Amino acid sequence: MITFIVSILLLILGYFTYGKYIEKLFGVKEERSTPAYVNQDGVDYLPMSTGKNSLIQLLNIAGVGPIFGPIMGALYGPVAFLWIVFGCIFAGAVHDYLTGMISIRNRGAHLPELAGKFLGKVMKHVVNAFAILLLILVGTVFVTSPASLLHNLMNGSISLWMITVAIFGYYILATLLPIDKIIGRFYPIFGALLLIASVGVGAMLIIQKAPIPELTFTNMHPDNLPIFPLLFLTITCGALSGFHATQTPIISRTTQREGQGRKIFYGMMIAEGIIAMVWAAAAMSLFHGSTGLNELLASGGTGLVVSEVAKVTLGAVVGTFAVLGVIVLPITSGDTAFRSARMIIADYIKLPQLSMKSRLLIAVPLFVISIALTQIDFNILWRYFSWANQATGVIALFVGAMYLYIARKNFWVALIPGAMMLYTTTVYILNAQIGFRLSMNASYIVGAVISAVLVVVFFKAAQRARAAKLPLEVDVSDFNKAA
């Protein structure tokens, strides 16, 4: 219990200390016009309040990651707490803040455009394809997972197929309509439901004195799977997730002032870390250790664990509302995954999105592909999502490091976590069944060599970019601030 409480306090402290440092390092310009005003179009670019942007950002980035991931990560024992806390403060929140703020400085640019500017033109095309693949996978996964949860919640009274169709219908509307019509109106309500559910579960764990284990570095996984690199790809959204880099530009286009960035981008990642801590602690303490949790996962998957946690801590009635809060998470990330994919493609092919016809031209093929992917086993999709997700995070952190390097600022805050995740993801791909299937020891060695080479390449590219005085931001000096 002490480890759990201290971890929560560290996350909060991280926001007020390291978060403040990152904000000061970046250098907020309150007088600078933001894309919400400079590019205002009433569809994707329009100013919204800090509170509304914060809740939308939280729901955009959360998905099932801060719940399903920590539940699976709980199999490794309390060492998972360390990754959530330190990963969130020093990697995930830095990743989200830099991505959001650099996007604001570049008229709401998405990751492919930022990668092209700061990492080279070839990377723009690579990251564009990679980001769209990731977003389609996310959108598809976040159709099947909430559909399954709703189907179980209603005891199978409504067919899984009908629920899936209904979720797709909602996704289509949220992807096509102006951001303030559905997302801006309903996300604050959904956000409140999510926060109440998570706070309720966390509070009851403390009140009921749940036997949350204290910190130990012993691997408790029943199948003795290696902590590194698997834990770092199992718990993503609660610590570091590249998916967030595809979502933050959505809100960079609706942020009123740069000074709001720490609350919206860094702060909401901290909030997600707290949610992850709650569900990891619950999974570790309520099912008689890793063995009991593993048996429950084998019998009913993470959805069953969520339902059992909610019922045990909050009771049948209130627990049902908590499960609804969990269901909201993937739905409110799935819709923005498709919306983000539409925006990225539109930017890439330079197709304005003011007309519904233009939006349909991009959105329809995306949904056709996603519907086809729903026929593939969820577990297979999740395996590819895991490494694609963290690889995207590596790219975003390297973009942040390049920006800070050119600006002659402390770029290590982004490069160190970026290099760490580069090594983690490389080792995973080399060892995994969906990768090169090398032995773990060989993967560690080869992964280290590949990562070191790529870091050297980064430094050489950074030196050239600094010497060429690559512009860090788009000039908006001709625009008057309307805020």
Automatic annotation (TrEMBL):
Keywords: Cell membrane, Membrane, Transmembrane, Transmembrane helix. Pfam families: CstA. Residues 3-203, 295-426 form the CstA N-terminal domain. One of its GO terms (biological process) is cellular response to starvation. It is a multi-pass membrane protein. Signal peptide: none annotated. The chain crosses the membrane at residues 75-98, 126-146, 158-179, 186-207, 227-243, 264-289, 309-332, 360-381, 387-406, 411-430, 442-462. GO terms for cellular component: plasma membrane. InterPro entries: CstA, CstA_N. It is found in: Cell membrane. Belongs to the peptide transporter carbon starvation (CstA) (TC 2.A.114) family. This is Carbon starvation protein A. It comes from Paenibacillus ihbetae.
